[in-house]
Each structure stands twice: as C-alpha cells, then as structure tokens.
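anyone seen this seq b4? input:
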Amino acid sequence: MSKKKSKISTNTPNPSATTTSGNTISEAVNLKESTEHAFLSFFQKYGIYILPVLILLIASFLYNDFLFGKNAFLFKDIGSDSYNFDYPKLYNLADHWEKYGLPSWSFEQGLGQNMHPYWFDPFTFLLILGGKQSIANNLIYVFLLELLLAGMLFYLFLRTRKVEGFLAVLGAILYAFSGYMVLGTTWQMSVFGTEVVYAAFLLFALEKFISEKNWYFIPLPIAMITVHLPFYLYLYTLLIIIYYTLRFAENQQWNFGKWFIGLATIGVISVLGVGIGAFMFGSNLFQMIESPRGSGEFAYTNKLITQPVLALADSVQRSTNFMRLFSTNMIGNAETFRGWNNYMEAPMFYCGLLSLVAAPQVFFFGNRKTRIIYGVLLGLCFWVMLFPYFRYTFWLFTGDYYRTLGLFTLFALLYLNIKAIQQIIEEKKMGVIALLVTVVVLFIILFGFAPVENLNKSLQKTAALLIVLYAGVLFLISKRALQSVGLGLLLLICMGEMAFFSNNTTVNKRNRATKQEMNEPGSGFNDNTVDAVAYLKKIDPSPFYRIEKEYASGTAIHASLNDAKVQGYYSSRTYQSFNQLNYVRFMKSVKLLNPNDETSSRWIAGLFGSPLLQRLCGVKYYLANAPNTFADYTRMNMDSVALFGNVKVLKLKDNLPLGVTFDSFIPEEKFEKLDSTSRQAILLQAVSVDKTLQAKLKGFKELTSANIPEQGVTIEALQSWVSQLKRDTLQITEFKPNLIKGNINLDASKVLFLAIPHDKGWSAMVDGKEATIEKIDAGLMGILLEKGNHKVELAFEPPYVKEGTYVSIISLLLWGAGIVLFSRRKKKVVETIDEEKEI
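predicted toks r here
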C-alpha cells in the first residue's frame, strides 16, 4: 500500500518544478490555456463594442445601394405595402404633425378616419420629426437603428443568460440579419422591424428577472408592445409562458406552485407595463375592435375554425416550410416565388444555416430531462408547421398567417444553436455521429423536399456547401488546439452568409423605388397630380371639397389607394388593415364593396365609379387621364378646368358642399330591398335610418322608392336632386380636420347630413348645447336640427387618449416608486449581510 502511494507521489507533478525557460510547469500550463482562450476572452471583454461594428460592416455590404446609391428603402413588388401603405402613412402623419400637432382626424383617408391609433413608436416618431420631405431618404437610417438595437438587445439577452461573449455576438448577428428582419422590413418596416427590436428587449427583460431577480426592465418592452399592436400582447404572453416554462424546467425539478407563482409575478409586473402604454392602448384597441376585421363583419374566423383539426398541410406548404429554413429565396424571390401563398406571407424561418447544423447537438450533451424539454420545444415548432389548424389557433382564427410564429420558431432555433455551441466550447467535444446524421438529414430535406419548379439551384448548392463547412468548423471548435481557429472561421462564414448568401437576393434583387422618383417631380406620387391639386387649392378657396381620381399615381405592382395622403387632397380611397368600420358599412350598404370578400374591406377604391355618391359626399373635382376625351365626361355633367401634362382636371357642375339637409327618410329595412343604383339615387333624396332614429323624425316625409325616371338616372334628375339639397346647407366659418364650425338657417326641421363616417371621437354643439350625432346611411353622420338659425360646431378628440394618458402617468410613477423601494430594500439586505460577516 505504501509503495503504491510512493509511486503515485513520485509521478505527481511538483508545482515548484521548473521548465528549461525558468517557468514552473503550472505556469506553462496556465500560459497555454490563456493563449488558447485569448480569442474568447477578447470577445468576453469587448463584445459589446465589437458587435455594432460587425453589424454596420455587414449592413454596409447588404444595404450599400440604399445607403450610398440611388434606391430608397421602399419596394414596389410583392412588398408594395412599404410603398403603398407605410410611406403614405408616414408622410400624412408628418404633414399633420407640422400643421396641427398630435395626429387626430384625417380626411385624406377614405371619407375620414382617426389617424391617432398606431402612430407612435420611437422609430416612426423619428421619421415624423425628420419632416415629410425627408422620409424616403431617412427610412434606411432608421432601419439601421432598428438593426443595431435588435442585435444589441439580443446580445444583452444572451450575456444575461451567461452565454460566452463570442457566442452572444454571433447569435446577435444571426438574429439581426434573420429572414424575419431582413425580409419583413421590406414589407412593413413599421411592423416587422419594430417587433424584432421589442421581442429582443422582452427576452432580455425576462432573463434579467429569471437570472438576477431584477424585475425593473419587464414593464418597458411590455409597454412598447402595448403601444405597437394590442393583439401582440396576446402573442407575447404566449412567448412569456413558453420561455419562462423552458427556463424553469431547465433550472430545477418541476414544481407547479413555484412555476405558477413566478409566472403570476411576471404577469403582475406586465400589467404595470400595459399601464405605461395606456396612452396609446385604448385608442389602438378601439380602432382594432371597431374595424371590419376586429368586429367580425369581414373576417376569416368562420372559415378557419371549421377546418379539420388534424388536416396535414398540403405538399406545397410543407415544401415551402422546409425550404424557408435554408433560405428565404430557395424557391424564388418576390414575383418569381412559387411556394405557399406569397413571398411575404410564407414563413420567415431563416436564421442562418449554422442553426440547423448545430442545434441538434443539444441532444448529445443533454441529460434525459433536457432532451425531453428541447424535444418538446422543437416538436411544437414542427407541429404547427405540419398541422395548419394549430397555426390558426395561435392567431385566434383571425387569419391564415405565419408572421410572428416565424419569429418564435427562429427564437427556438437560435436558442438551441447557441446553447449547443457553448457546450462544444466548454466540453471540448461533440457528438460526431450526431453531426454526421444531422448533415445527412439536412441534405435529404434540402434535395428531397425541394420543389422541381422554380428552385434556385445555385442557392441550393451553396447551402449544401455551407452546411458541410459549418460541420467542419464545429468539429474544429471541439478540438482544444484548433478551437480559436475554428471560432474565427465560424464568425467569418456567418458574416459572409448573412451579407451575401440569401439576404442579398432578398434586398437587392427586387423592384425598388429610387430616391429621385420619391423626391423629384415627374413620376409616382410626384406626378402631375401634385400640380393639379396645387392649382385647385389656389383657385378654389372653399374650406372643404373632395377630389376623385380615376387612376393611381403609385408605380408599384398594386394600385396605390393612399395617393391623397402624399398628394394632399381629400378623397374617398383608402388601403389599410383597419379601415373605419362605419365607412365600410356605408360602402357595403350602397353595394360598392363585396361583403363576402375580406380584402374588399381593406382595399377600398372609393367613389370614383359612382357619380351619384360623388355628389352626396362632396366631390367637386375629378382627375382623369388625358388620353380620355372630354366627351367621355359630358354625360357625368362635368366641365373641363385645366390640363397638367397627362392629368385632365374636371369640375362637377352639380357638386354639393359638406353639410346638406334632408326632410325625408327611408327606413333601413326598405332601403336594403333596393338595387344598387336605386340605393345610391335615393340617398340624394332622403336619409336611410334605423328604427330608433325613425321614431325621432315626426313630420318628415317617408320614401319607399328612389323615384328614378323610366329611362334611368338622367342629368336632369340628378340636377333636380342636387338643387333641392343646395337650398339649406351649412355655411362653414372655420375648418380644420378635427374642428368644423358653421352656421345654418332652416325653415323647417331637418337632418343635417355630413359625409363623414360616424365615430365615437366626434362630438357636436348646436347653439352652445351638446347635440347627438346620429348614425345615418348605414354609417355616416347626421344631426337633427329644429327650424331656425343655428351655430353648429363639430370637434374630434381621439377616444380614450386622455384617460389612457392619466393611467400611463400613474403607472410610470408606480414603476419609479417600485424601483426606489426595492432598491432600498436590496441595499438594506446587503448592508445586513456585510454587518453579519464583520461580526
């Protein structure tokens, strides 16, 4: 026994033994380890500074043509929402901000709509402050800010999660340049880019709470999500539940009581965040609910909820799902895309091929519990990919979407990817067989599930090469002597992939608007319409009139229905997700949109096809394409006014002002029995009313038919109706979008009709007393007036903003007080511990 001990003692290195260079053996070992880890130590110390440099470096290559070239960050292909929706909205907001201050009511959207909801987020506000003329140029710089913030916040999330500095930088790059960010922002930067930033902030705040018991950050991303989109509170509640459950299961044995208490604590803290965002929440939520989609009048719900629960996604959708894991453009880009739905709506799963190669390694390192946890996480991702009903459920049957579900999926992939590589670095080993199996499976999917039609074979081959390279580099990282080389190669390959592999096609091989066309006269939103509108404003001092166009100025593949927002005139066209519900009801009542087509409630072409309703709703001028001869418009009773290039300006001879009166009505139930022409004609003779209002119209004449001549609606009949309505009209003395004042003299009781959608935010005063604004013609405004002279005042105030602001102020004070209180308590605990140590 003593001999064995002696032998062991003899072979044990002596700490004091020296090498030929004079260093001890232990010092030599430490020096070797220090050298091997110098690369990781450098990123551990300076990662927070290195990351923004790398993001800007990648962005300078990827977005070079937007930063230094001719293109604006606006897309005219399938991503035309950036051009047709985002840009007009931002321009209109900036214009309103310059003229009136905080956004309220806009007559440039449909027949008018509350523009306050969804206007505020930090990035939109920066663009507004920059001025309307600079928006097209500034979009790319605000996007760069989103890119940097998304990367930095994801980096902080990973560092709080105790991830190596190098891997935190790597993960942040993969996140910032994920398909969801790069592709999504070419569709709607104000939605997708902002969401990516807020989501990273939320993960960081959650991890702060879980790892450090620090709750202070949680209310901030919750408040931002509250302001962004109310529906997303539901979506990100799901993320909170999933992430907290994942981390709870990783850290300890399952205990339902502890899990529930922790989750409930986050819930209470989150309510404070909702309160901070209340200054926008009520306004946003109200518009969402009071919209065609939110009210359920135009929605997919009934169609989606009746689908078979376990019906498998069709082959096209399955193929698309798999291919979009490898690249956003594997089966085409923009108009060449041939997968499920369209290029934008197809899932945005891509977050670098490294994630696909490395993530399965977590099953090699994990114990039985963690393998089950990560298996369930990946299983959930694939389950919703394969069975659409569960995707519909995720979206509460509001639409056939992926969208945020794609972001959650790439969260899972990135989480497992980073965790796997960290374990390879720490353990200096990996599952080689698991790696080989992963590569084989990925090749089977990449080549076996790829569609024959429209496959980008060049990307497919490049993806295969990158998969092999990543596998090789991961193997190098598992070897102590080659780890630094492997890590350096890993970073370089990832950066190259993000800059040149898939994202380059997503951004640069697209139909984009140029800075010149967005800023200089000649085409697009700056076509001859601008000159025509400026001319009309100069020659016609009337406080209010509408202009209709028979053409779209925008040059995207989809017709632009928001031209008025950029070109500065009042119209009736509109395109947006949540159009004014009562305007849609009015258009539905006169059969100018299809009640069975959900998209018709978003894409509203307005009144340009209805000469009768143009008169009713105050259209005074009509802009036509010059190739059409004047003879085409004589039957519509118009005069030629001017010609600007290819834009012919026409004036309706028998136009009506805002604020005409009626002494006749038709009950809604009788109105609904009429055909489309009769409905439009009778609205120039009477107001359509429900039974409640009908009871108030004693002494008014009831009509049951439109009194259309046998030969149809003639100019004479039209002139007769208009002439009758011109007798008693509102004489406007002051006009702003949110304030209308005027005088009117009536020789009998009448209904003052206003071609403005009925909205909770509008209030009326008649002769200094509050008056009720009635809903007439299915959704427009009317005020019942008695005989005599009256002063009428209409004012608009966005609903729930004032009340929400009070809640926000109180919530901010509570948040601040909570931070102070808990900080003091924490300080006292630390002082007590120090005192006990001294004793």
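Confidence is low (pLDDT under 50) at residues 1-23. The chain has 35 helices and 22 strands. kinda curious what u guys think
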